[in-house]
Amino acid sequence: xxxxxxxxxxxxxxxxxxxxxxxxxxxxxxxxxxxxxxxxxxxxxxxxxxxxxxxxxxxxxxxxxxxxxx
Length: 70
Description:
Elements: H1 2-12, E1 16-19, E2 40-47, E3 50-56, E4 58-61
Antiparallel strand pairs: 1-4, 2-3
């Protein structure tokens, strides 16, 4: 998830909070961490040797000011 936060901050200048599905609370353990599941998952083939997997998350922010390219 850290990459998600970093990318949104880098691309549009927003600090976000990812909304987790109801009744989900990830746990951190010594040797592994549970990941926040996406709201939607899409897998589609581009060619015989190439496919895309899209994980869609929903987030909120306290700001409505987008800073593209800063």
